[in-house]
Automatic annotation (TrEMBL):
Protein name: 5-hydroxyisourate hydrolase
Function: Catalyzes the hydrolysis of 5-hydroxyisourate (HIU) to 2-oxo-4-hydroxy-4-carboxy-5-ureidoimidazoline (OHCU).
Keywords, sorted A to Z: Hydrolase, Purine metabolism
InterPro entries: Hydroxyisourate_hydrolase, Transthyretin/HIU_hydrolase, Transthyretin/HIU_hydrolase_d, Transthyretin/HIU_hydrolase_sf
Phylogenetic placement of the source organism: Bacteria, Pseudomonadati, Pseudomonadota, Alphaproteobacteria, Acetobacterales
Underlying gene: uraH
Length: 115
């Protein structure tokens, strides 16, 4: 069985750069919501360590909460449309590494399961 873990990174698609300095939270949602980690993305738009290691992995529903509005406001850009972007994911044991990228601009975002 493949060990499971979770990582993320954020790309600022409006400016064509990694979203350095974006605050985010990582929550386990079951059986009750619990904040597991808070982080700020590094110069490459990534967290310095995985948000969920293979040792701490438990199957279930999780949320990543990205402060997209705060990131664009800190850059002096219009942040009136998006605030916190929430991505809710279901993680299964033995499914390998989960990578959740966020591609964002002040007015839109997208995500996918990366590798």
């Amino acid at each position: 069985m493949k060990p499971s873990a979770l990582s993320t990174h954020v790309l600022d698609t409006a400016n064509g750069i990694p979203a350095a300095g974006m605050a985010l939270e990582f929550w386990r949602m079951e059986p009750v919501p619990v904040l597991l980690a808070q982080a700020v993305t590094n110069a490459d738009g990534r967290t310095d360590a995985p948000l969920l290691s293979p040792e701490g992995f438990r199957p279930g529903r999780y949320e990543l909460r990205f402060d997209v509005g705060g990131y664009f406001a800190a850059r002096g850009e219009d942040a009136g449309y998006l605030g916190t972007v929430v991505i809710n994911v279901g993680l299964r044991e033995g499914s390998g590494h989960y990578h959740v990228p966020l591609l964002c601009s002040p007015w839109s975002y997208s995500t996918y399961r990366g590798s």
